[in-house]
Amino acid sequence: MPKLIIDNIPVEVPEGTNVLEAARSIGIVIPHFCWHPALGRAGACRACAVKMLDGPVKGLQMSCMLPAQDGMVVSTTDAEAMAMRRSVIEWLMINHPHDCPVCDEGGECQLQDFTIAGGHGIRRYDGRKRTYNNQYLGEFIAHEMNRCIQCYRCVRFYQEYAGGTDFGVMGRAAMVYFGRQSDGPLESPFSGNLVDICPTGVFTDKTARFRARYWDYDMAPSICPHCSLGCNITPVARYRELLKVVARRNDRVNGWFICDRGRFPKANVNALDRPRQPLVDGKATSWDEALDALRERLNGFLELNGTQSLAIIGSPRMSMEGNTMAARLHKLLDTGKICYFSDSVHAGQTLEAVASLTPDNAASQEDVRQADLVAIVGSDLLAEAPMMALAVRQAWRNGAPVYVVGEETSTLFEYVAVASLSDIPLAEAKHPVLICGTNHVGSDIIDTAARNKAKLSFILDGPNAFGCALLSQEYGATPLSEAVASGKIKGLISFESDLTLELPAGIRVLAAADCRKTPLLSRAEIVLPSSAWVEMDGTFINNEGRAQRFKQVMEPGLPIKGLDPAGHPPRLHRNTPPGGEVLPTWRIIAKITERLGSEWIEDPLSDQWERLRELDAEGEGISVV
Ligand code: FES
Hints:
Among the domains are: 3-93, Ubiquitin-like (UB roll) (Roll); 362-453, Cobalt-precorrin-4 Transmethylase, domain 1 (3-Layer(aba) Sandwich). It is α/β, with parallel strands linked by helices. It contains 19 helices and 28 strands. 26% of the residues lie in helices and 19% in strands. The strands form seven sheets. Strands 15-14-25-24-23-16-17 form a seven-stranded mixed sheet. It has a five-stranded mixed sheet with strand order 2-1-5-3-4, sandwiched between helices. Strand 24 (508-514), helix 17 (519-523) and strand 25 (526-529) form a beta-alpha-beta unit.
């Protein structure tokens, strides 16, 4: 561990840390553009100059290019270093359009911050600025090349880190251009990261263009709900509309990036016609009337058919809070069944996968990135969980061989196709990881992993499928298809459920709670509108058994943009905004149990799940394996 002194502060850092990172570790931020923690150094921008006063290296140096070494004495405030940084930034700004007032990056722009921090304020160059034509890069990313400072972060991410081939850097003399050969949508499923990684406004999120400034945002740490990997995100909202989603760093999970599937879908949250008011037999009503109606119908149903004919349905897309409350309702009513999965194959495979994971063998995305051999069994990772494919690519870039059993269509890494697990030299690797699609769980995979001390990663179906598997074991849940096949179920109450099976016509859907318009909702006698994940706090357990907390980002309600073509909020005096009557599903269930005579429930997490109450949303999560 090298020991050095930076601005008179002694610091000890791990081997391989550069001087820029060493300074960051003690809170000294040196201006930088091309260096990025996930991409490493490029030495392209020359903005990170420091003066080496003593030690093995002397004089002005680029701090990102210099590994920290014993005995170094570094000054970040030396006059020569500061003059160099000021000059470099002035040069970088020569051709920049200075268009911050109309740039979406304004207020969250690294170039703005470091231009000021670097000491450049007055523009002296009065020549003609170099200009470019922009490209159409698809419906998600806006392109404004005039703002480019040639840091090469975009192309290093797109080509090297993410394996994209349709975007690159082209140059002639002083004209360096970052784009495609010709106009067209970016093909990489990780293209949205260009927005996060560009230190200025060359790439901005077209879907949120000109809608708000950084200081207008409603933001909170959150977890992506679009697959089972639990990537960390920061959703950004304004005026009750989800504007955009940006990646949030978690070194154990997604690192610095997210996929486009997690970044761009916002329609479900912002839909004007999503369930926003309780309905009884299709008629809008108040919460009190809806819950009274449910109590009456439920009592009538139970009197006629008995408690064993009722099923409570949870969902792998619902938070732990909602699913544990569904179990409490099941216990309170002593209903015949609690169901978390639609079909028995899916349920069986998920339970088997979850049961096979231990604290020692559960592989995080970081474990995959660090693996020295990766085997993929029966999963098209790019389609099922794109960020896992990106993690495999990093292992492959580090030299790990990748083996595929079955079909894999990813083009992110080269692989060797093999007929069976026994064809993979797992025993030769020190840190092998086996990745399986849920549809291919089997005792052979689990046994092979155990024999070879390989870590295991299963791609599950839903952001909280892992949690549902644990609750299934705890409460003896039955897959809905089995419950229906038994012929005993005559009615159900469902919470955020995406049923894949056709429900027999004779089964009553007494009530359904959801924030989406699902086919089940159209069959429900009573519709209970629930909050979307950005409108509440909650917990998901990801595919490796990591419980992670997501926080409320925005108040629920109709987006102001959708209410009035003139764009003005309605001039009404009321306690809740229009469309803001939705409730978190766990709170809906708490209200139902209260109506049925139970005590008021303050916190949905009880018994062994109480330990999740104190989860830090900004932490790395905790393992529940
Ligand atoms: Fe060091 Fe760009 S950050 S040269």
